[in-house]
Amino acid sequence: MVYDNDDENSENEQSGGQVLDLETAVKDGILGGEVAGVICSDVTAPNLEKLDLKKMIEQLDSIEVPSVFICPISLEPMQDPVTLCTGQTYERSNILKWFSLGHFTCPTTMQELWDDSLTPNSTLHHLIQTWFFQKYLAMKKRSEDVQGRCLDLLETLKKVKGQTRVQTLKELRNIVAIHESAKKTVVDNGGVSFISSLLGPFTSHAVGSEAIAILVNLQLNSDSIANLLQPNKISLMVDVLNEGSMETKINCAKLMETLFNGSKTVPSLSLLVGVLRLVKDKRHPPGILVGLRLLKIITSQESLGKSIITIGGVPHLVEMLPHFNSECLELSLFVLGILSSIPEGALALKKCSNTIPNLVKLLMKISENCTRYALSILWEVCKLSPEEFTAIAVNAGLAAKLLLVIQSGCSPGLKQQSSELLKYCSLNCTSTIFISKCKLTSTLQ
């Protein structure tokens, strides 16, 4: 790129054999001509000066930027482009840093420089500033349009009922799901309180589903949470959790996760049944994850823990272990760990034929947390029937896995727990079988 420093107004930039002035840039599509009603020729210098380029770049960090605006060193948009004698353009701070490291070459071409002067690229700087200004104005206009539409929809909701209310809620849900400004507008204008008021004993599932889908995307304060924890509202959510579409069930579980976290939940068997159905549905992994997160919160309350055991939650979780990913495994083992500390839970685990084999397979396989939870569960089952447990566990390869834990870089507490369980197994199993299953005869002897 060649520049005439004596006359900045007639400055041209060469890139790929084309002159990068404003007219050519618009014609070649770099600036895009008209963007959301903002025409390049309408962007005046006073308007550009009112907005800081750095702030515009930060607010538009998710959009795709023309490659000609990108500094080859940092791969970030340039704010103060300067050109070397080789014709290559860089962000001033980046090329100065390159020089400070002792380089006297062009980073792109690796040519030695015959002149170390940096020529301000005013044309490219103006192109960059104009392009970002266009995008910023378009974004601002979209944001204002979205906010206005949200307010209109909130006002409409106060006047309509039936299918019209459902359609209005659906449109509001779609806007809120996409635009951050829409979420803030709804919250700032009393939308959370109003939408929450739509949930009640006489609310149709269609209205309830759409209202829940909106609320799950909003920031709820303590008052909003307290309002939504009213029994009649929770009752509707439980109904929707059990009877809605998969998307609705997931939204409902997410909302209840927010509501129940740190609050006393309603001990409803219907709620637990709905959560377990989510966890058991292998076709929808997102539902499994959100279901397990909710189950973790619920299980922390002892009364509900016993209810989960009563409706058969323990064998369901045990049978699902081989199908879970690492995140779901950690959640499910946490839940089973809590349930195993309840006598009825430990007994349910003992009665499930796959408890020991499934848990042994998970030792040293996923994470230290998973290993810790699995060991705790195995201990609880072991204490119920030492001899029966030992025979099954050793045949499943427990002894060898425990030796791996002891010899690994796990925490001292986990190693101690493994050593004690290994010793317990050796005392309740014939030495020949125990040693052969360990596959480390000489070490043990």
UniProtKB/TrEMBL annotation:
Name of the featured protein: U-box domain-containing protein
Listed InterPro entries: ARM-like, ARM-type_fold, ARM_PUB, PUB22/23/24-like, RING-Ubox_PUB, Ubox_domain, Znf_RING/FYVE/PHD
GO BP term (any one): protein ubiquitination
SUPFAM superfamilies in alphabetical order: ARM repeat, RING/U-box
An MF annotation (GO) of this entry: ubiquitin protein ligase activity
Enzyme class: transferase
Function of the protein: Functions as an E3 ubiquitin ligase.
Keyword match NAD: no
Pathway: Protein modification; protein ubiquitination
Species, as recorded: Mikania micrantha (bitter vine)
Domain of life: Eukaryota
Record bears the keyword Methyltransferase: no
Catalytic function, reaction form: S-ubiquitinyl-[E2 ubiquitin-conjugating enzyme]-L-cysteine + [acceptor protein]-L-lysine = [E2 ubiquitin-conjugating enzyme]-L-cysteine + N(6)-ubiquitinyl-[acceptor protein]-L-lysine
EC number of the protein: 2.3.2.27
Keyword set, alphabetical order: Transferase, Ubl conjugation pathway
Positions of the U-box domain: 64-138
